Amino acid sequence: MEVGTVRFGEIEVQDTEIISFPQGLPGFEQLKQFVIIKPNLELPFSFLQSVEDGEIAFIVVSPFIFYPDYEFEISEDTKRELAIMEETDVMVWNIISIRDSLEDATINLLAPIVLNNRDCLAKQLILQGTNYAIKHKLIAIHQSVVEGGDA
User: Fold this and answer.
1) What is the pTM of this model?
2) For 56-75, what is each residue's pLDDT tens digit?
3) Each residue of 112-146: pLDDT tens digit?
């Protein structure tokens, strides 16, 4: 099927590539079908592009690239809802917000997108009882301090 997008123009999407969000995404509940587009294989970023509205696309990334210790529990209800049978069925994506530059970009660790990549079913979770926030710095800026000497 041909999908018209603002960012990528007309793209060809196979039915097997379409990810279904039965409940939509928070704030976009009317949109139920998306596809992952990876325009640059050398960068970790992809786009979660709506199949139904070519103007809607979110920048997403695997959180483990930037936050290797990121973890949360998937409830039994969510596992049933997404037909998750094996841990290997699961992919996790998080939405990135880029305002002015990549150095100022944030990642939403509070609301991961859980994808059953075997059945192409997904849901954005809102985590409860965690220290994760909507806006974590994507790229931590590390400053080294040299004590007691010249650099």
Assistant:
1) 0.87
2) 999 999 999 999 999 999 99
3) 999 999 999 999 999 999 999 999 998 765 433 33
- The rounded distance, in Å, linking the Cα atoms of 5 and 110 is 28
Q: What is the pLDDT of residues 26-56, one digit of tens each?
A: 999 999 999 999 999 898 999 999 999 999 9
Domains along the chain with CATH numbers = 2-137 (2.30.290.10)
Q: Helix, strand, or coil here: 17?
A: helix
Q: Note whether 59 and 47 are within 8 A (CB).
A: yes
Contact (CB, 8 A) for 74 and 84: yes
Distance CA 69, CA 76 (A): 22
If one counts every other C-beta atom within 10 angstroms of the C-beta of residue 102, the result is: 10
Tokens linked to 87: 């841990």
Structure tokens at 130: 């965690």
**Would you say the C-alpha torsion 18, 20, 25, 29 has a positive or negative sign?**
positive
